[in-house]
Amino acid sequence: MSELTLLLLQVGFLILLWFFVFALVYSLRADLFGVKVRKLPEPAAAAAPVASAAAASDLTAPVVARPPRAPEPAPRDSAQRSSAQQSGPQQATRDSVTRIVITSGPKAGLELPLTGEPLTIGRSSESGLVIRDDYTSSHHARLLLWGEQWMLQDLDSTNGTWHDGSRVATPVPVRVGAPIKVGATTFELRK
Predict the structure, then answer these.
(1) What is the pLDDT of residues 29-78, one digit of tens each?
(2) Residue 170 to residues 101, 151, 156, 162, 167: CA-CA distances in angstroms?
């Protein structure tokens, strides 16, 4: 083998070795420090750009999603309450739920109060609800109030976040008692 061929093989091997070193460091950094968490726009701030874009009638302006409207208050008397329960699952609002209950997984039976502050769920010790299993990302999902409605947001997790059997791709409104699955753990929002 010529010296030039041997030199090219050595340089190629060295480049490949450094590629693996950088891939390993990137993976460790993501596991130790997590990924950057994106913030949702505030409900009032999200409506203003939509209105200004519509007023200018500029078709190239980005469209900003508005938060969903809050559901009407629950009926007071028992006849109205039973007819409202028959109409379908109730949306989880600040007033309709007070706690998160883990129904299956390593921490089954654990209950946490909902304070109105965003709740991050994941393996990281910085999360409000720490779930240590192999199927949960460092910063997996987030529960937050958007207006008066509780929303569930997936934080680009590897295995996904599931709400009532459907994978969460964009922030979705949470229903009272609907199962939310993160990794091997399932929980619900309850009154």
Answers:
(1) 877 776 565 565 665 544 444 444 444 444 343 444 444 444 444 444 44
(2) 23, 10, 10, 11, 9
Q: What pLDDT score does 188 carry?
A: 92
**Low pLDDT (below 50) residues in the chain:** 45-87
**Burial of residue 54, with CB atoms counted within 10 A of its CB: 0-12 exposed, 13-18 middle, 19 or more buried:** exposed
Tell me the C-alpha distance between 162 and 141, whole Å.
10
3-state secondary structure of 51: helix
Going from the C-alpha of 55 to that of each of 41, 48, 50, 95, 139, the distances in angstroms are: 20, 11, 9, 35, 38
Query: DSSP assignment, residue 158?
Result: S
* Separation of CA 18 from chain center: 34
DSSP character for 41? P
- The answer to whether the beta carbons of residues 134 and 157 sit under 8 Å apart is no
Mean pLDDT, the chain, integer: 77
- Residue 161 tokens read as 């976040």
